[in-house]
Amino acid sequence: PSQLAKMSKHDPRDIDEDAILKGLSKEELEQLEDELQEMDPENAMLPAGFRQRDQTKKSPTGPFDRDALLDHLEKQALEHQDREDLVPFTGEKRGRAFVPKPGAGKIPEDEQIVLEPELEEALRNASDAEMCDIAAILGMYTLMSNKQYYDALGAMGKIANKEGINSVVKPDDIKYFPDEPPNPTDVGDTLKKIQKNDRSVTEVNLNNIPDVPIPTLKEIFQAMKSNSNVLSLSIAATRSNDPVAYAAAEMLKKNKTLQSLNIESNFITGEGILAIVKALASNSTLTELKIDNQRQKLGDSVEMEIATLLENNPTIVRFGYHFTQQGPRARAALAITRNNDFRECQRSHADVPIPSAYLCICSATVNKGVFTFFSPAVRQQRVR
């Protein structure tokens, strides 16, 4: 009898585990190890060897040759004859063939449309291509493909469809468009012209120039502080980050000429965007600002702050950003609409001085976040 069988008759509390383990044979130790292994056969994430106990202790019966096994299986498949059909097809026809009733498919006389003789003759003699164009003009787009429909609408006095309504739909040839050429702007030369306040430079476009160093972009905004000729500055897709945004914010506080700023498609975070929008409080000339498509989402709190700052800004008339929340989107839209309305009022009555009371009303509505829109008649009455 084994050592385990001997000790099972005693009181379990008096068992000495160390003595039992020392008295076990090699086979009994292996059996005990197999019993104590924690296996999880239901875990599909584990390999098969970890889901069950090892059962491959037998010596191999022979060498394994994969190519020989595949050749044997292929040979066996070719030698095996296909099984014949249990019920062979005899070609026998059962049942009755469908025969339509006489007169079926005709429109009843009370539902037939009577046209003028000239129109009936014209339709009777019309070709399939002409009928296809007529159906497109009448809006019967379900009778043809989209290409036939739009070709017929775009044709001016000509037959666009040559094959008729029941024509085979063919795909259009692929139109290859060449890639846009790289931005030819010389960054170094442009920086020198901005620093010299060159009058010939009124628009700076550095879009899609990914290798512009960050210090160079900061120098451009530093030079823009004292520039009085550049009206539009665009650095979209230049890999600009927050230090560039902070430099742009400092520039907006001192520049009194720039009207449009585009910093879309960059790596600016919400803090950098807020710094730029907050700088608008010290700027009265910028009318267009584009900040959309940054790599990092700005977040709800930043969007709410942007909407609040736009409500307190009377000059921005074009703001490029897609708000993700409905609340700040509506508030920003009202603020931009208010600014456009006030600018249109100034443009319409440029020769008439606007009373200070009207300006006070506008500033009060801006500060309180309340937007009042006046009709042209009321606006003209207030100006008078």
Automatic annotation (TrEMBL):
Keyword terms of this UniProt record: Actin-binding, Cytoplasm, Cytoskeleton
UniProt GO cellular component terms: striated muscle thin filament
Main location (coarse class): cytoplasm
GO molecular function terms attached to this record: actin binding; tropomyosin binding
Protein's cellular compartments: Cytoplasm, Cytoskeleton
GO process annotations (BP): actin filament organization; muscle contraction; myofibril assembly; pointed-end actin filament capping
Region Disordered: start-end pairs: 1-20
Family: Belongs to the tropomodulin family.
Protein name: Tropomodulin
Gene name for this UniProt entry: TMOD4
